[in-house]
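Reviewers of the previous submission asked for a worked example of the structure-prediction workflow described in the proposal, so we include one complete record here. The input consisted solely of the amino acid sequence. No template or homolog information was supplied to the procedure at any stage.
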Amino acid sequence: MPTPFCKICFKPIEVTSFATLLDSHLTVCDSCNSRLRPQFIEFELEGIHGLALYDYDHMIKEKLYLFKGCHDYELKDMFLERFRIYLRIRYFKHIVIPMPSWHEDDQWRGFNHVEAMFSCLKLPMRKIFGKSKPHKQANLSFSNRHQISAIMILNDKSSLRGKSILLVDDVVTSGETIKAALALLRPLNPKKINVLVMAKTSLK
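From that input alone, the workflow returned the following structure tokens.
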């Protein structure tokens, strides 16, 4: 088997930890992983428990830009891969529902970044949400981010009664996207809803 190389520093990934011993498909070395500084931040939105793996610091912002903005698909697993076994156990029997992006953005990029990022969990995924028009939360002020509720749509209205749902997104700031999703999701009668995001911004 060829030696894997780190997608960040491009150096060989050596067996220096228990994680690298167990997992031969890692794309980030121990040194770069420590620079990513995973935080496991617990939070709550409208009574729903959420977990963010990282603080949205400079390092995470830079790597997300390369993945999402520069279309570097090779980076898709770097954010979650170290924790995927733990996350699969924690969210066992959950259905992953990704937050939507504008379909033309996905076509331009060549992939949906949220779906690609969370695909490494190997959990069932249903893409039930969409957007009726382009809308970038990053371009809006904090006070105007609630506008997402007016353009998020439900493409799949089939019942989720008795199902455990895991809402996923790359970054949460105000939480308005998740709140809009919850408003559409709750009438489908899921048994349980949890939220998992790659990173969370720190509001000052």
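Residues 123 and 174 are 27 Å apart (CA to CA). We consider this example representative of the routine output the project will generate in years two and three.
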